[in-house]
Write a structure and sequence with these properties.
Blueprint lengths: L1 H4 L2 E3 L6 H17 L2 E5 L5 H15 L3 H5 L10 E3 L5 E7 L6 H5 L17 H28 L17 E7 L10 E4 L5 E5 L7 E5 L2 E4 L7 E5 L1 H6 L9 E3 L10 E3 L1 E4 L6 E2 L17 E2 H16 L1
Parallel strand pairs: 1-2
Antiparallel strand pairs: 2-10, 3-4, 4-5, 5-12, 5-13, 6-11, 7-10, 7-13, 8-9, 8-11, 14-15
């Protein structure tokens, strides 16, 4: 059931025309069904991934006083956050090291990508930058495969992401979680593309199919890829953004865990128009053409007004 809903797609050999056509067809089927798939053969160095996890875990296991030096005291997402519940998070945007003047030009609305990054130290920053570069390269090629799957020119998305405002986020889940807590509540992602490395067999990621929750298999060395609401809107609902959550491990598993999703977001001023009209009765149907910045402002307003 899960393999059909969240298929495994081998990206190896994607430098050939034949393989790209085959992979694009597999991606199209996955995105029309669930918007989730697992990729192997991606070419991202295991050494880089291991170093990323070692460096990041080292930060989260520092003393509270040491971590507080990177804590975010404002409204931006960058730096350390303690959102409550069973985890802490550290986040950085690719735009977070631009000058304050440059960041101020990233839209006339509140946006997380306008916040400055707050780095613990130079080595941590260098490791995260290396990982950001690898995730950007992989995501950019997946977007080219998306374009092919949508019967567009492969470079259709390139110029819409050439000054992207993407976010790299590390979630540190505490050991000994409470039995009645989810590690992450049910949600959809708001953006275009998310790439999550599967660190270990503990897993916990589940996707919703009808009224059921299905476990996403943990395949060592793979990435779980899913589209967000923005990509579903961009395709006019042709592709699906699926609700997902993270559940606690088995009671006997009291280890901590780190998950590091990369949210590949277009340029803040990219103008997006659905490739076909959105379905009547959906929230997105009221939108015609929208910039990425307007989209996130609209999502913030509609989500938090609805929950208040």
């Amino acid at each position: 059931m899960t393999d059909e809903f969240v298929p495994i797609i081998d990206l190896s050999g994607r430098d050939t025309e034949t393989r790209r056509t085959t992979i694009a067809a597999e991606i199209r089927r996955a995105c029309e069904t669930s918007g989730f798939f697992t990729v192997t053969g991606h070419g991202v160095s295991k050494d880089l991934v291991d170093h990323m996890y070692t460096t990041t875990k080292g930060f989260f296991t520092l003393s509270e006083a040491q971590k507080d030096r990177s804590a975010n005291q404002g409204v931006g997402v960058s730096g350390l956050r303690r959102p409550g519940g069973p985890y802490e998070a550290f986040a950085a945007h690719v735009t977070g090291d631009l000058s304050e003047e440059q960041r101020a030009k990233l839209g006339d609305y509140p946006a997380t990508w306008k916040a400055a990054n707050i780095w613990p130290d130079a080595d941590f920053k260098a490791t995260w930058y290396d990982y950001l570069a690898a995730m950007t390269a992989l995501s950019a090629d997946i977007m080219r495969l998306f374009a092919r799957a949508l019967e567009l020119d492969e470079d259709f998305f390139d110029r819409k992401f050439d000054e992207h405002v993407s976010l790299l986020l590390a979630n540190y889940y505490y050991p000994d979680p409470q039995a009645d807590e989810l590690r992450r509540d049910a949600h959809t992602d708001w953006g275009s593309l998310t790439v999550l490395y599967v660190q270990d067999a503990a897993g916990g990621l589940q996707v919703q199919r009808d009224e059921q929750w299905l476990d996403v298999p943990s395949i060592p060395g793979s990435f779980v890829v899913n589209i967000g609401d923005l990509m579903a809107f961009w395709t006019g609902g042709r592709w699906k953004s699926t609700v997902h959550r993270v559940v606690n491990p088995a009671p006997e598993d009291t280890s901590s865990r780190i998950s590091i999703p990369f949210f590949y977001l277009p340029n803040h001023d990219t103008s997006i128009e659905p490739m076909r009209p959105s379905a009547a009765g959906t929230g997105e149907a009221e939108l015609d053409r929208v910039t990425v910045g307007e989209w996130f402002a609209w999502k913030m307003k509609s989500t938090y007004q609805a929950s208040s």
